[in-house]
Write a structure and sequence with these properties.
alpha+beta; YjgF/YER057c/UK114; 60s Ribosomal Protein L30, Chain: A; 6-stranded mixed sheet
Length: 130
């Protein structure tokens, strides 16, 4: 039987909704949708797509690392954008964080994200050795 490892962070959403920031089963690490949430639950960098996307990607990669993966292990990302988000800035942040890895990616606009002032949400999948 393959063991399962879970990672949670301090965003507060996980406990409220009953999920983990990331889960690893075997070599597969799946990271839940991640926003730029501050300690008080409010959005960091309100109105700043680039700033929020950078924070989201930093947290996603931190979750991958917490479960034994590296940025090179990331094989897929999904970037959700609120209607007021700038896709070019989100793309810039993705390129900065993962451009050398070049994972499969989907970026799309959605009607909105849960919580006020959130412009970007990122989820990922990684396949790590060991």
């Amino acid at each position: 039987m393959t063991s399962t490892a879970r990672y949670t962070d301090s965003s507060g959403w996980q406990q409220q909704a009953g999920y983990s920031r990331a889960v690893r089963r075997g070599p597969v690490i799946t990271v839940s949708g991640t926003t730029a949430t501050g300690p008080d639950g409010a959005a960091l960098c309100p109105g700043d797509t680039l700033g929020q996307a950078r924070i989201c990607l930093e947290r996603v990669l931190g979750a991958v690392a917490a479960l034994g993966g590296t940025p090179d292990d990331v094989v897929r990302t999904v970037v959700y954008l609120a209607p007021d988000a700038n896709w070019e800035e989100a793309s810039q942040a993705h390129r900065e964080a993962l451009g050398d890895v070049a994972p499969a990616n989907t970026m799309l606009y959605v009607a909105g994200l849960i919580g006020g002032d959130f412009l970007v949400e990122v989820e990922a999948m990684a396949v790590a050795a060991g």
